[in-house]
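Slide 14.
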Amino acid sequence: MKRLLLTLPLLFIFSIWCAEAQVTTYPYLEDFESGDGGWIADNTTAGTWALGTPAATVINSADSGSNAWVTNLTGLYNADEDSFVTSPIFDFSTLNAPSIEMSVWWNSEFSWDGMALQSSIDGGATWQTVGASGDANNWYNDNSIGGNPGGQQDGWTGRVSTNNGSAGWVIARHALNGLGGESSVILRIAFGSDGSVQDEGTAFDTVTIFEVSCPEPSGITVAAVTENSADITWDAGGAESLWDIVIQTAGTGLPTGSGVSTMDNIAYDASSLTPSTAYEVYVRSNCDTDGFSNWVGPINFTTLNEPPPAPLGVTCASGASSFIFTENFDDNPPSGWTGTGFDGSNGNWDIAAAGANSFGTGPANAYDGGSGTHLEYEATGDATDIASAISPAIDLTAALDGAELSFF
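Slide 15: predicted structure.
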């Protein structure tokens, strides 16, 4: 009797478990030229994030190479978008002062649609926004974005250069405050839009995360500004206790010297400033043997007008009054007034004669006669333009019974 021996192959079924790799080596650099690098889009709610070669009308290139993350590579983002690009997990347990630098481009409806960077240390259960509006180094430019990127309102927003857009790639840098020593950090780029008016949106590329030996200061504020002084404060970036501060004419740019050194508890009282002058502030940390941080700035402010001589005394015992200050806008420019120009061009205040305003707008004549002129604003048609007409400082010390403002 012959026996037939069958050799049956064994089928083994393997269950493959993929653990998401953590980033542990720094400095970290991702330019997305070899793929997404573990950055994943969540477009669940009308999202448009895509990785590839930008080819829209405005956002039409990557920062480096050919690939970047964009809210729609070739067109517009969606209405009511609430979307994200989430990073791989970063292990910062060996870092004391991590910082991030990334290239960003934004072209979205100002104050309605925008982008922000957020972090999580609990696996994405909760998110914290990195930085705040007004922080230096090209960080957020608005804190009232109606589209609520990541459930909050700080972020990058605006259209092209004339309406707060970036007008190209810019490098944004910020300390990752509070994340040093954390072993499981996730970052995400959040984008949000409202229900109307879409643009090309936002983009990011060339992400770098690195340890800094001398942390940058943050939270620079300017307060109590007078015609010749201002109080400047900031937050320490780490354990440093010495800082350099430079106060210079606005538009000067990065300081070339060391500035003024101070150990005055993260505060500096600037004095001997020039009235009615635009200034910019830069601050850096001095970490002794660890060197200096980068300069943080510019933070801009303008000193007040110098008060005019005290007016004729006013004594108001009971109902009698005498004017301390009167301006009828017969002179162009009005004496002592500052602001965004009195040259009659669109977007500026103007000392206008009767009938000189645009067709169908403005008053037909001045209230008080005289030369027949009045102060008016000639709009540009851009809803975000802001113009100022600022009076000289008015000394009210002689107004014993208080003061009252009236105008026509």
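Speaker note: Residues 1-19 have pLDDT under 50 and may be disordered.
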